[in-house]
Predict the structure of N-acetyltransferase domain-containing protein.
Amino acid sequence: MTVNGLAQVIADEVDTSTPETVSIIFPDPTTADDESLVSRLTSIVNAVFSDAEKGIFLPEYQRTTDQEIKAFIQSRKLAVAYLCPSNEPIGCVFIKKLTPERGEFGMLALDPAHHGSGFGRLLVSFAEEYCRSEGCTVMQVELLVPTHCTNAFKERMQAWYKRLGYEIVKLGDFSQDYPALAPLLAGPAEYRVFDKPLA
Ligand SMILES: CC(C)(COP(=O)(O)OP(=O)(O)OC[C@H]1O[C@@H](n2cnc3c(N)ncnc32)[C@H](O)[C@@H]1OP(=O)(O)O)[C@@H](O)C(=O)NCCC(=O)NCCS
């Protein structure tokens, strides 16, 4: 073993750092006036989606805007993950009741610096728990997957949703559900709808 290798082993053994945790909440609607919070969330969402959806949408497409994030906070539809103890916002998930029985989550996004931390799973659990507490028995999530090229990230997301208990229940009609976005698609894509029983 090299001297450097030995130093590395010792450093690992004495590492006393506390693992990072997050607090996930619906911020108070008045925080919609906090421009730095809104712009931070907008840039996290747009950065991770432009990466994840490369090749799916035309380059000019942006997943969200400050105005949309602000409106979602005001209507208590956006749960935010804050890093503890710094209180730095690092991710979010949009949560909506489609019907009294059916909840939906979307716009799931986490600062890339925290990917692989398990916080993505916590955001999904938060959305499910919230909808369950509101009386929902089914949770829905949608995934747009290009059919003209492979997108490894989308395939990983699909495998993850399946591990979390979601199953494809139908192929949606993207142009019917999102007529304003359909012209911004860069090519053909399959719009998969997943369900998970919440009971
Ligand atoms: C979706 C997102 C929030 C998940 O965040 P995350 O940090 O990866 O969340 P997690 O750490 O909980 O990991 C999610 C799963 O991916 C797995 N994973 C993480 N990194 C991986 C990698 N490089 N390769 C394969 N699997 C990986 C994890 O093991 C985990 O699976 P598990 O819960 O069964 O262990 C994040 O990837 C993101 O912001 N993506 C861009 C936006 C997006 O595509 N949102 C969803 C649109 S439908």
In short: Residues 19-197 form a domain with the Aminopeptidase fold (CATH 3.40.630.30). Helices lie at 3-13, 35-52, 66-74, 119-133, 152-163, 174-177.
